[in-house]
Design goal:
Cytochrome Bc1 Complex, Chain D, domain 2; two-stranded antiparallel sheet; mainly alpha; single chain; binds heme C; 2 strands; 4 domains
Length: about 475
Amino acid sequence: MKKFIVYTFMVAILVGSYLATAMPAKATDLGQQLVQGQCSSCHKFEGQAESRFNLKAPSLMWGGSKFQKDWLVRYLTGKEDPLYQKGYRWDNSRKPIKHAVVAKKEAEAIADYFSKKLNDPRVKKNVLDLTHFTEMEASFGEKIFKEHSCIACHQIKEDGKATGGSQSTSFHNAGKRLKVDWIHRFNLDPPDFVPHSGEFVADVSELGLRYVTGYIMTLGVDDFKFYEPWKDEIFKNADVKRGGQFYKEYCAQCHGLSGEGDGPAALDLKPKPAIHAKMALDNEPVDYLYNVVYYGGKNVGKSPLMPYWGLTLKPQGVADVIAYMRNTFKGGEKVARVAPEGKVATQLGSCPQVRKTHRAPGNIHDMKNPLEPSAKNLKKGKVLFQSRAKPLACKHCHGLKGDGKGYKAVNMVPPPRNFTCAKTMNEITDGQMFWIIKNGSKDTEMQAYDKLKEKQIWQLVLYLRELSK
Ligand code: HEC
Ligand code: HEC
Ligand code: HEC
Ligand code: HEC
């Protein structure tokens, strides 16, 4: 009896596998039936990549590797905008189409068929892990996207407005549409997928490819989960002793063994390395410290003479050195002491204040704030001032009350503006403030906030005005 069962079972397997190899064309799967019956007249589902000039529609041999299922179902049920705004055939031989729509159940069957049968072996899974992708890295990706012409052919949305060219697919919702492994592999060598189609191979390093791919994955995703290293285990595990060792090996050459800014390499530098011994680094926001040390001075609006240490020390090493610094440098006397060479430290928060700030260009200098001082705008300005403005909120220098006495202001020459002093503030126009916030004040600690939106800058200006009323 037992033998018989085993025997029939084996026959079933044999017959089954015979049927599967001998008659693959007859579709039993609903998704496959639909694809063969309703889609293959326009789309290619097998064979080699071909030029867009010879095709009616984008090839889908790799559809399973390319699309996120939810987006695919929405697209096929007519709930997404067209991807090619000028039509797929951009030589103007065809107009944009209204894409065929199927019922939700059918769309789901098609999506399942894609993910079962249309996987491209060249697209390896989990090559690019974005669980440790930071907001700073997304901003590097955005820069690449704009500087390497991606935006010339792929449109994105900024502040709700579409910008960029529309020669190729729109990226408004790319983070919901495409799979990360697909973008990465596609970008490694676009002609593998769309040869002779106007596609573009960019000169971007492997790391740059990670940044731009991660950035594309944030497009259209409002709640993208960025990695925040300062909230991670690495900070709980940070080791002051290990950090001290790193400080000696890497930082002391410029900042000096005891943080006096007098390391052997400091001699030729301008600006001089920060004097950690005089800074209250235990007060400094830890996300800011992480970003300065990991990504370098240039990426937080400071000098590129402060190198980026992330690739050398790795996240754990950066957490260690920060733990060491916060434990060691807690500021000294709270009065201005040694000023940089040839300059005299001015009293913090004096009123009126000596002011040598460069004047904004004429048309900008005389601009009036276009926003109303409504409760909502003032609140937004206040939140930016106190905590949200990046890389570093204004209060750390200008003080919690805007009186120019932030803890970071000790030793600063010139000192931060005292916004509570009407005598000084009445001389400064809205446009002047706008310009300095956007571009920084050259050769001072007032850095450029060029990542803020114009509206946010005007909200800040509204808030600053209130402080001297
Ligand atoms: C009449 C020709 C035609 C038919 C039939 C057709 N499509 Fe398309 N399809 C297109 C064109 C043209 C585009 C590009 C449209 C756009 O700009 O959004 C497209 C886009 C797509 C995309 C997005 C491609 C990408 O690269 O992002 C998918 C997925 C898709 N079609 C699936 C299907 C499926 C599944 C069917 C069958 C149910 C189907 N299409 C039937 C012409 C067709
Ligand atoms: C000169 C125009 C042009 C430029 C510049 C360009 N692309 Fe493309 N891109 C294309 C074309 C054409 C396709 C293929 C569309 C198709 O399937 O027919 C494409 C497809 C893609 C795709 C696949 C997505 C999809 O919807 O099929 C990605 C991802 C992509 N490009 C990323 C980039 C990145 C990143 C840059 C900048 C480094 C860039 N592109 C610059 C023309 C361009
Ligand atoms: C090649 C010289 C050099 C080395 C090496 C160096 N730094 Fe710096 N660092 C600078 C300079 C220059 C500045 C001042 C930048 C400015 O004011 O724009 C600075 C500023 C800083 C600041 C202050 C940022 C602020 O808001 O004022 C911190 C914190 C810092 N460095 C930490 C480190 C750590 C940690 C290391 C070692 C892992 C290190 N630095 C190694 C040159 C260096
Ligand atoms: C790292 C310290 C620091 C931070 C952070 C900082 N400031 Fe300043 N700010 C200064 C210093 C120093 C000056 C004086 C510059 C000068 O005299 O030219 C200044 C001057 C200004 C002025 C006066 C411009 C003028 O023409 O007189 C404005 C407005 C201003 N800051 C706004 C802001 C705002 C808004 C923020 C936050 C988004 C901010 N600052 C963050 C240090 C800082």
